[in-house]
Design goal:
CATH topology of the largest domain in chain A: Aldehyde Oxidoreductase, domain 4
Structural class of chain B: alpha+beta
Oligomer: heterodimer
Number of helices of chain A: 20
CATH class of the largest domain in chain B: Alpha Beta
Largest sheet of chain B: 5 strands, mixed
Strand order of the largest sheet of chain A: 11-12-9-19-16-17-18
Strand order of the largest sheet of chain B: 2-1-5-3-4
CATH superfamily of the largest domain in chain B: Beta-grasp domain
Number of strands of chain B: 5
Order of helices and strands of chain B: EEHEEHEHHHH
Number of helices of chain B: 6
Largest sheet of chain A: 7 strands, mixed
Amino acid sequence: MGEVWKIDRREFFRVTGTAGGGLMLAVYLPDRPWNPSPDAPLQPNVFVRIDENGGVTVWVGKADMGQGVRTSLPMIVADELDADWSRVSVVQADADPHKYGPQITVGSSSVRGGAWTPLRKAGASAREMLVAAAAARWKVPAASCRTERGYVYRTGSKQRLGYGALADAAHELTVPSDPRLKSPADFRLIGTSPPQVDVHDKVCGRTKYGIDVRVPGMRFATVVHPPEFGGSVKTVDATRARQVAGVRDVVQIPTGVAVVADNTWAAFEGAKALDVQWNPGFRMSSAGISSHFRDVARAAPVVGRSDGDADAALAKAAKRIEATYEAPYLAHATMEPMNCTAHVRADGAEVWAPTQNPQGTQGTTARITGFRSDKVTVHVMHLGCGWGRRSRTDFVEDAVHLSKKLGQPVQVTWTREEDMRHDQYRPAALVSFAGGVDAAGRLVALKALVVSQPISANGKGRAGDVDRNAVDGIMTTRYAIPNFRVAYGLPDVGVPTGHWRSVGPSQNIFVFESFIDELAHAAGRDPVDFRHDLVADQPRQRRVLEVVAKNSGWGKPLAGGHAHGIAMHEDKGTVVAQVAEVSLEHGKPRVHHVWCAVDAGQVIHPGIVHQQMAGAVAAGLTAALYQEITLDDGRVVQGNFDTYKMMRIDEMPLVDVDIVMSDAPPGGVGEPGVPPIAPAVTNALFALTGTRVRSLPLRPDILRSTQQA
Amino acid sequence: MASFTLRVNGVSHDVDVDPRTPLLWVIRDVVGLTGTKYGCGISQCGACTVHMNGQSVHSCQVPVSVAANAHITTIEGLSPDVTHPLQKAWIAEEVPQCGYCQSGMLMTAAALLQAHPHPTDADIDDVMSRNICRCGTYDRIRRAIHRAAKEA
């Protein structure tokens, strides 16, 4: 069975719940390149139907959290199909491994993770089948037919047949094993930016996010979790909570204490009135964690990469510098707090979740309820931001445990404070560098030592491993460094860690691109020229660097009190370089303008790429300017947007995005734009003030002291 | 508990809740209009913005007892058919990404245009900085407000 095959009406109805007819194809998209075993039977995760009226429907099993996959994935099918885009509709698939293949939506993988070719083949196969059906009807060779916007035309005549009129006949034909794919020059939709499918509902409040689910008989609830990670409930006194108007019940569940009420606010008020004694969990404070990281750095690290002889080359270098950087824990703080709605019945369970991980949600529900997974239906709701937080299922557990105990449908909504204090955090990091340049100002040696937790629910890792995420962006650099060593130290810290938009590079590109800038200055070189040497044999990198330098007017004089800084990054098949123009206003950094050059390979929807790049700048800049999660005796200090600040419209820089075309396959665009902005800004601040920012978030006081000095 | 009559988008609703219950939760969980969002509960993010007698308010801060008998407009009532100039501009500029904050953004922007039919960038900064967008759609929000002002 290939990546695209035909399914009959019965099977189509079973998976989509829709009566079939017309041409119905199933498509298998591998989730990630390394995921499926080659011997396992392919389970489709996309279905395409061309109905008798010419409508094209695509069922997509991917979560949308603002990154536009509900638009971009169907565009790929529609282009190869030569469909009329106005007749294409998209349906979000529920989670069910008995119906669909992998659906997890992480790692900017939706388009790049193997979807590109199978989706093109699906469209191309359908097109060839429709052409063959038309050719048979006209009794002409297929070569004398062409397709355009939902019709097959007979060349040299005015005859045409709509896809709808051909769909049934086409379904009787064999799916071509190797359909001819378009040459990129012939794309009509790919590379254009048609309106995104969900915009209309989003401007009138009609889009249903997880928190908007309303099920008949549903109660509203919230859960209070142990304030220390790994802690548990010792005793609960619910007397006062039960007296709160609107509170119906207080229920202890394995994850914490739930308050059930007539409305969410009553549940929140009840939660405040709870008197819970907790068994202790992880008890460290931020200062202790930081000093533990320094101890780990002094202990024997594990070497993850060693090219040449970094020590010998450093000893011989014309100039050597050393520096140590720190990055904080970060919360995801999605706009929609964690929530989930569940209904555990006697014979099965139904879950409504804003999730990036439908099958994990189903598995978690099955484990808690004891039902087979085919008795668990998961409805994937819209996500009010994902950022990686919603690939975990801890919030699903709350709702399923609670509904199981109550025997009725219940929606659990976390308060913002619970959301921030029970996140799976972007790991903090301590990174030390030593680097050397030769007399010609070329980078000859670099040593990096990374101390940072792996990503795991309890924050722990395995001794002796080099954690792939913790060193990502440094160990994986494309820079040509003849003598290069990367080592890793594993801390023993019980802070739960998670994937945070762009993951390891979110901290590592800040430290790495800052130190590269330090080396450039130490060598007396221009930071762009210095990087040019490092990517001399990387054409995509080189081009992106050239474009961003040109667009930003790099090296040309700027307004007084303004400076430029640059940083670049490659991840998920996409190369991004950013230049930030920065000044100080009343001692506070002000980012006026960001130029972003991005080579994302074949671009499906340039509008989405622009959105993702501007959004990435906002994400990275917000974190750099304002955000850190700190611990006091194991408890997270920050709880809401007053202490964990978000950048607002008045601080948003102008972002110029230039998409650099290349013939590389589609790269991911959700994440790679995030990491470079922090170092671009801090490198600009160095150019402006002479102060090197070596920890985030930015503390304006260090810049002020320099100015006054 | 106490009874109140709420007038939301021109429709009266009798509700029986604790008088301190914020308007946000009455709209969402009792009246059943879910376009108005919860983001922070402390008047930081603006996702819960609605209009009360024509003024924009953070509905997480308004007790239902204060909102009773006032004219409340939520995102669902901004226009009957998605034709408010801001909604049209939001669509034309493709403002939303995840979209969660956009109800609040639109309601704040609608109040801004009432007060300043042709707002400057500084007016937009001043008023729209009451709201948070995590996707970073700020630049398109600015463009859409200018567009709506021009086309209104």
